[in-house]
Structures are given as C-alpha cells and as structure tokens.
Amino acid sequence: MGKIATMEYFRVPPRWLFVKITDANGNFGWGEASLEGHTQAVEGCLDAWAERYVGFEADEIEHIWQMSWRTSFYRGGPVFMSALAGIDIALWDLKARTLGVPVYQLLGGKVRDKLKVYAWIGGDRPGDVEQQALARKSQGFTAVKMNATEDIGWLDSPSALHSAVERLQTVKALGMDAGMDFHGRIHKPMAKQLAKALEPHHPLFIEEPLLSEHIGGIKDLAQQTSIPIALGERLHSRWDVRPFLEAGCVDILQPDISHVGGISELRRIASMAETYDVAIAPHCPLGPLALAACVQVDCTLSNFAIQEMSLGIHYNAGTQDLTAYTKNPEVWEVKEGYIELMKGPGLGVEIDEEMVRRESRDAKAWVSPGFLGPGGEVREW
C-alpha cells in the first residue's frame, strides 16, 4: 500500500454520499459519509480533510482516525463524525482489497456466517402495514420496523396512540416480529402511555422512546417497561454512548456506522456495550456501502442482534434503491430472515463507478421533512 493520492466524494440519489480514496499505487477503497439532510456540511468537512490527508500512508487507518479526532480541538457531532466515517470505511476497504481479504478478516475474523435483518414498512405517516408486511414476508424477512406514530403533540389525546397498537397487532398476526420506532417524536407525557399500551403485544423493541438529550426520562421509562429499549443513531462516539450504558437505560444499542466515525469506532462502541450486556443492532437506513461496512463488523461481534436494511425503504421510492450503484446486488438477498455473509475482498460490494459518477452530476441534496401541528407549531419529525 502507498500514500493517499486522491480523496473524492459523490453525492448520489436518494440521499447518500460516497467517498473514494485512491493510493499512489492505484489501490482504491469506497466509504459512505451519508448524513441525511446535512450533505453540504459533510462535503465541506471532506474538502478540508482531502487537502490534509493526501500524502498520508493509506494503511495507517488508526493514525488517521486519531489525527482527525485529537488534532481538531472541536470534535464529535454528526457532521464531523460522518465525514470521518466516509474516510475510515474507505481506508478499511482499500486495505482489505489490497490484501485480498474481507474486512472482517482484519478485525479478528467472523463469529457467524449469516446475519439476521429487518426492513421498514409504513412510511413517515405509517399506514398500509398489512400489505407492506406481507410483501416483506415474501422477500424473506421475518422482522420489520415501523414508525410508532405520526407527529404527536407534547400532550395529545390518548386516542392518538390507538393506531400504533392496532398496527403492531396486525403485523404480529402475520407471524412477524416488529420494532416500533418512536423516532424521538413523542414526549414524556405520551411516551410512557404508549410504551404501556404496546407492552402486552410484545414489540421486538421500542426505538428512541425519547430524544437522547433526555437521558433521565429514558432511564425512568426503562424502569417502567419490560420492552427492550433501543437507541443510538443520534449518538456519535463512544463518549456519547457511555452515559447511556452507565445509566442502564438501553438494551439494544443502534450506532450508525456512517455517523460514528466508521468501522473503527463502531467496533469500539460494540466492545463497550458487551461489557454492559447490551446488544448491537446498527442503524442503517442508508446505502450499500454503509450496510456492507456494518455487515463486516456485525459478523465479528458476539453481541450482534439484528441489522437494519434500507431495501425498499420509503425514502428510496421513485429513485435508487439499496441494490443500485453495485455490480453484485445479489448479496442483499434475504432468506428466512437472514442475509449470507459476503465473501469478496474489502467491503464485499463492487461499486459501479460509472453509475456513481453519472448519477452524482447535478444531484440535489436531500432535505429532511418536518411536521407542523394544528397550531402551526413545529413538531418533532
């Protein structure tokens, strides 16, 4: 391996940001720095780091990670860590490709040959879950996730929660498991009611029952319910995760590999979680590079539980799906709730660079949706 020669990024539909790093010997690797709704900010960070890291040894992944973290003074947060993730993942891909092995071989080797997965149903304003769940079942999934509610007022009518229970019952009646994503939309007066209403129907987990800035409220809720509590997509480093582990208020940790500084940091977070008997189920409603990177880490973890996939997610409707931009989309085939571990070198996906370059021309940055309440007030999305 040689020194880093070029670092490029590509904004591609529906809302992804790919990174390609090439060394002086022509070896290359791909990463993903997608940060939904903040693409331009991440691109600015990548511009600065491209100037800095050209000329660094491409195989010194940890040195580059520590340089990024420790010499920046202002560190962490979603933009910084997403940019770092794109670089980190690309460097792991480059190194493993050059050595002719999957990334997981450089992480100590695999502990499993296939991974349990789930997919989304229902959309941002959840509906039609029976038909969508049946479609997922026909694709080979045995578990799904859906938004628990539409937007909810700080103190809303309890009747606003009834549909969440009905949708969970509908999916469970099909013989499938379902995670219920509160999405940080629901505030404490309603969240505690919804958790209690869902509990008799045994959801797989409840996700982000409160926003992560309310750790005290999450701790209180964890003591009131037997439902596993999942969270972590808005925690961006092991330092962000630490207080939740210490408070004992998370059962399933969901770090996003594209938001936590890549493969290097996801590995460290997973090891921390293991010491607290907390499962890992990486958040990944993103592109094929982020998912492939998750798979490379997941298969090495004893505390891995289940992996999110963006196949057919509502954000991809009318544009590119998970199977786009790669020459081997068959790696995402689901059988009896599992995907097989990829066997190719690096991340195990082969990028169609011609398509990436073509689709990135004049690609628009994705803008996060928002919700307004009946009084014109901004509600959590």
Automatic annotation (TrEMBL):
Coiled-coil-forming residues are none
Q: Which GO terms describe its biological process?
A: amino acid catabolic process; D-galactonate catabolic process
Against Pfam families, the record matches this protein to: MR_MLE_C, MR_MLE_N
Source species, domain of life: Eukaryota
Q: Which Gene3D superfamilies match?
A: Enolase-like C-terminal domain, Enolase-like, N-terminal domain
Residue ranges of domain Mandelate racemase/muconate lactonizing enzyme C-terminal in the record: 126-228
Kindly give the InterPro entries that the UniProt entry links to this protein: DgoD-like, Enolase-like_C_sf, Enolase-like_N, Enolase_C-like, Galactonate_deHydtase, Mandel_Rmase/mucon_lact_enz_CS, Mandelate_racemase_C, Mandelate_racemase_N_dom
Q: Cite the entry's keywords alphabetically.
A: Lyase, Magnesium, Metal-binding
| GO MF terms held by the record | galactonate dehydratase activity; metal ion binding
* PANTHER family reported for this sequence: D-GALACTONATE DEHYDRATASE, D-GALACTONATE DEHYDRATASE-RELATED
What is the recorded name of this protein? Mandelate racemase/muconate lactonizing enzyme C-terminal domain-containing protein
